[in-house]
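Structure (tokenized):
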């Protein structure tokens, strides 16, 4: 059975966001190793470790959500929507910030979140999800 297009698009969005988070964690490690002033606003090395841990957990989580979308699992919907809302609110606050340097990263956060939310609530995706709930043997009555 082939994966319908809405599921593939959502899997692609989740995978790209997960990869971006993992890359951001790697950049944080590289920046901390090469720049002695990196992390001085936090509590030094512990802030960097926590930052990398958060990026790694969220990145791996979104990659698992992408796998869930690709295999058409219903459980992927809730964590995906939560991740998109976090991206939308985080990106929106960066876009509305007065500094010009945060506008592009804010758009890079907000635009995929808006696209992801639009696709997950699109009529085609709602029909596909409803069909999954009506499938025999789904355990839902």
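Design, position by position:
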């Amino acid at each position: 059975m082939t994966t319908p297009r809405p599921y593939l698009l959502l899997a692609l969005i989740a995978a790209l966001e997960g990869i971006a988070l993992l890359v951001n964690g790697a950049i944080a490690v590289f920046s901390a190793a090469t720049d002695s002033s990196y992390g001085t606003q936090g509590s030094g090395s512990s802030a960097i470790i926590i930052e990398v841990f958060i990026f790694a957990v969220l990145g791996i989580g979104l990659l698992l959500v992408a796998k869930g979308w690709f295999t058409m699992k219903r459980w992927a919907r809730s964590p995906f929507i939560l991740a998109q809302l976090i991206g939308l609110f985080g990106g929106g606050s960066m876009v509305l910030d007065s500094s010009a340097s945060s506008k592009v990263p804010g758009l890079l956060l907000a635009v995929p979140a808006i696209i992801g939310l639009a696709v997950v609530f699109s009529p085609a995706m709602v029909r596909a999800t409803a069909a999954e709930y009506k499938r025999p043997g789904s355990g839902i009555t």
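Reviewer-requested clarification: The helical segments are 5-34, 45-70, 77-95, 103-120, 123-134. The mean pLDDT is 84.
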